[in-house]
Write a structure and sequence with these properties.
This protein is mainly beta. The protein folds into two domains: 76 residues, Immunoglobulin-like (Sandwich), CATH 2.60.40; 178 residues, Immunoglobulin-like. Strands 16-17-15-10-9-21-22 form a seven-stranded mixed β-sheet, with no helix packed on it. The protein has a five-stranded mixed β-sheet with strand order 13-12-18-19-20, with helices on one face. It has a four-stranded antiparallel β-sheet with strand order 1-2-6-5, with no helix packed on it. The chain is elongated.
Length: 326
């Protein structure tokens, strides 16, 4: 019996050696060497609402498993390379759930991803960055004012001092119903009792909120971005890119994170051309959106208000600071 096994093994080895010497063998080996060995890559994640997200991969894939916070989720192809994932429970608005998804391409290369995802509030009002101060003091701290242009709810709106992945701090707005004409003032690094609602001179409401950032806004060169979800996914609602014009040859911006934020906003058409020149802004000369000016995502949308002309919580002043002649 032992001799029989040895003869069978020897015959098998000889057959394999002969196969490798056949003319077709090199082509077979090359085909194997040139097979797709690249794993699927996630290119984009979009949050649709409080139940559904879509994930766009660089190739067509099938889903092996999907879950939110460990609970199984439904998933199906919405288009070639696009997977829609549905949660039977509502996704949170003010914090993130953990999405786990495992996919496989046609060559059986697989990827497994764990991604923080927040639900999207589809009642977010139209709003803009209306006033901004990054050169704060103890008595005049760094602040950002949002002007509300339509009725809605703010829960889940996320503010970042930089684009997602380049930010130093993020602040998620709480569940507040707002009306057109209201203002929301975010005190970035101060300590105040928040949220606090006050009537303003125009008869609308001003909401003061504390962001709790461990540091102030970038003083001279930075980007500030408003996203529709707590996880920073979804299209940018509004942005402001600013510089003092002295930090580098690239419009005055400095640091890799700020440069990356500026480039990301230009790539997504959420900011055009050069940053706003904030050289002459101070704690009492804030950056203000021009009254009755269209939101064009350009530096021209903003101006520096006259000294002590800041109007946080109220309609902006039209008095513009004119720097002295050199």
């Amino acid at each position: 019996m032992k001799g029989m096994r040895q003869r069978i093994l020897t015959a098998t080895i000889l057959a394999l050696l002969c196969a490798c010497s056949l003319p077709e063998a090199p082509g077979t080996i090359n085909a194997m060497l040139h097979m797709d060995h690249q794993v699927p890559v996630l290119e984009e994640l979009s949050v649709l609402d409080r139940h559904d997200v879509t994930l766009t991969f660089n190739e067509e894939v099938e889903v092996l498993a999907a879950s939110f916070d460990g609970l199984e989720a439904e998933a199906w192809p919405a288009a070639p390379g696009v997977i829609q994932v549905h949660s039977s429970d509502e996704l949170p608005l003010s914090h993130a759930a953990q999405l786990f998804i495992s996919v496989r391409d046609k060559a059986w290369n697989s990827s497994a991803l764990s991604i923080p995802v927040s639900g999207r509030n589809n009642d977010i009002p139209s709003l803009v960055i209306n006033e901004f101060s990054s050169k704060g003091t103890e008595t005049q701290p760094d602040r950002i004012e949002l002007e509300i242009h339509s009725d809605g709810n703010l829960e889940g709106v996320c503010l970042m001092d930089g684009t997602k992945g380049n930010e130093r701090h993020a602040f998620v707005l709480p569940d507040i119903d707002v009306r057109r004409g209201d203002y929301v003032v975010i005190w970035w690094d101060s300590k105040c009792d928040a949220p606090e609602a006050l009537s303003n001179k125009s008869g609308s409401m001003t909401y003061n909120l504390e962001a709790g950032s461990p540091e102030g806004l970038a003083t001279n060169n930075g980007a500030f971005v408003v996203y529709p979800t707590a996880s920073g996914d979804g299209p940018v609602i509004d942005a402001l890119v600013y510089t003092d014009g002295r930090a580098s040859t690239h419009g005055g911006l400095g640091s890799a994170a700020v440069e990356a934020s500026w480039q990301a906003l230009k790539d997504s058409f959420d900011w055009f051309a050069q940053p706003f020149n904030a050289l002459y802004s101070t704690s009492t000369r804030t950056i203000c959106r021009r009254i009755s000016h269209d939101d064009t995502n350009r530096a021209e949308d903003f101006m520096i208000c006259e000294t002590r002309g800041g109007t946080f919580g109220e309609m902006n002043s039209s008095a513009e600071y004119v720097p002295p002649r050199q």
